[in-house]
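Following up on my earlier thread - several people asked me to post the actual chain instead of describing it. Fair enough. Here it is, all 864 residues.
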Amino acid sequence: CYRAASGQLRYMAVVQDRSVEEERDLAQMQIGALMDTAGVGLATFQESSGWMQHSSALPGQQGSEPATSAAFQSIRRDVVLPESLPEYERLQYALRHFERVEVRYAIRHPELGPRWLLTRVEPATLASGKRTTSVVTLDITEQHASQQRSELLLREMTTILESTSTGIAYLRDGMLVRCNSRFESLLGFTTGAMAGCSLQQLLDGQSEVQTLVAEIEDALAAGDAYENVIAIDAPNQARHWCSLSVRSAGVAQGLHETIAVLSDITRLKAQQLELEALVRDRELMFSLSGVGIAFLLDDRVQRANEAMSRLTGYAPDGLTGLPLAELFADEDEFYRVQRANHIGMRQRGHWDGEWQLRQRDGSLIWVQVSARAVKENEPEKGIIASYVNVDDRHRAEQAVGLQAERTRAILDSVLVGIVTVGPSGIEWMNRSARRMFAGDLADFIDQPISTVAPPDPAHPFRQTHYLEDLIEGQAETFECRVQARDGREFWVVGNAVATGRESTGRQLTYALLDIERRRLAEERTAEVQSSLQRIIEAAPLAITLCDADSLRILQVNEVAAQSVESTPDQLIGRSPEEIFSPPVAAARRRDGEEALAAGHVTQREYRVRTYGEMRIWDARYLPLATPGQPPDQLLLVATDVTEQRAAQEARFEAAIAQREMLVKEVHHRIKNNLQGVAGLLQQIGARKPEMASAMAEVVGQVQAIAQVYGLQVGVSGPLRVRKVLEAITGSVQRTFGCAIAFTVEGPEPHVWSLPEAESIPIALTVNELLTNAIKHGVTQPDDASAVDCRMICGSSGVQIAIANRGSLPAGFSLARFPGGVSGLGLVRALLPRRSANLTVEQRGAEVVATIAIVAPGVTRLDPV
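Reply from S.P.:
Thanks for posting it. Predicted structure:
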């Protein structure tokens, strides 16, 4: 109220809007309450007045007194942990320079221990232009600990997933959210390239991906887990097999979660294929064996092969379930063999024996049987038995026994006394010996031969050491007196020869001759010699008797003299050097000396030109000597076999020509049959496109074998390496329609050949390598030929180098490819290990496969 100049009282009212201040006070009150509740420290710094206010206590202060500069500085450097000092220094720098910053650092509280703080510095400029800074500090110890635990758990889970050999993926609504690197590598993707892909995109490499995805979705919709085995053909990777398992993980936030697991089962698949091949091989061995094989259980035939069917005369189905007793001659024989079989099984685990098998038509044949338990020491679990027809052998043994009886009958007719003595005494004597000893065989059986010897300790019949000391076939000559059972004594001369038999052991065979008839024998010998001399003179044989020391001719007949264009009188007393040219004489003397040293009949064959005609003589040398003395004469008996040899050679050449014709015909038919098989396989590949690739590979292999047999039609003997390579490269070119450049390097390529046993494996190996080069090589548009095949000839062998543009995978090694039925595994299985070696290496931009073959894998022939 005031008085105006006019003297009137006037009133002036000032109205001020305080709503802003009220809102500010309300905001400060709310912020203070919020900071106190959240445990957040807040301070403001102004240039004019310094630290102005605070909203709560800071860690390291006592109570909640106003936050002054000194109070804020209570978070001292010495309470900050060393590893957080750089961040703390960054905070101090921001405070000094009015810069915005957010810092996390750790302190050690005197009461609460280690704590983590989050301090945020927010600079601002007031309306008056003054600068101010607000500092907010928050205790984030619990959040930091929780974050560390989460990071540790995440790191552990990531380590587990990345270190496992199984690929694991997490999908949400059919889209990939997260997976480990193993899952990506199994599908052939690079790391991190699969995020956000659909299930169909992940399995896009499969041949029927639509069907596979539909099956997975149907299984998940039905609440079931989906499991399957898939083949993955990833770029720059060999085909590998994986087991795929897909199962639902529930529904979260309306989205379906799915877990997919991939496991590499390539090795198991390969083992399965090998096991199937072994089963097929075993079945072929069982079915194609020439030996009868049967599986027996409970004395019945459970299964038998074709050979067993042929042996018994039963049909294969007729043998199944047949009682084993039906194959025996009678019931008693069955029980006898079964007892022996059971004893052998229990004692040795197997049984071998022979018995007569009754065929379906009732006839009996001898078979050799070998039986083994399927499970060791448990024959009741089943027995595998093999049956071999030995009926011919038994017949031969019977024939030998009959021949032995005939031989004894012949020995009964000779005038020399023959006595066989074993360990137990006399076993047999012929009729002449029985007459000498004046008794029957029954009187002397098992009696020592000294029974007919006079009482002389040194008598040869009392020398029992002959049985042990004499070598089999060695003869001991003696002369002694013999006292017969009738009292008559006489002189005999004889030999004792040691022989051996499996049934009776060692034996001594005595050949005795009555010397009292020697004169008569000598007279008869003279007559025989005279007759022999006349025979020698008249015989169409060349007979020559030579001195053993000088080889001078003592006696020669007319035929022998004419063979050297001479007469008997001119040859008597002459040595080989006086009859033949020096080379021939040296050979004849050498043959004579070798015959004398051998001590038995020695055969030679000579070609002698007589009166302008070449004759062939079959000569036999026989050293002649008195018993116990070295040879003093050498008898040469030669037969003119010129016509026989010519006939034999003609028959041999005819047989060879017939055999070569038959072999060529067989090779021609095999080639035609193989080409027919290749045509059938191509038809199958055309009808079934999913098998076209595999069929093309098999057709190439069959064509390679057919090419080898086709080459053998036109030639005999080993095949030339060059012709085989030309045929194989031509076959592969026709099969794949890809040009192959074939070149030959080195001297004399036409002299190298492949043995018959090695030709097909080498041809298949080259075919496989050429096929791989075409399939896996990188073809340029301007290439005249994508594959090069070179034959490199050396001094000791041949190298076959096959090159194509491409690159080997990292860490490639031939040792990682086991022998199998395709690819490099087939090559390693076919290649002859003893004479061939395969290397595959990278040479610049080309992959070169080299086959090095040495003897005996290749042979060097005369040039054609």
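Confidence is low (pLDDT under 50) at residues 55-73. That should answer part of your original question.
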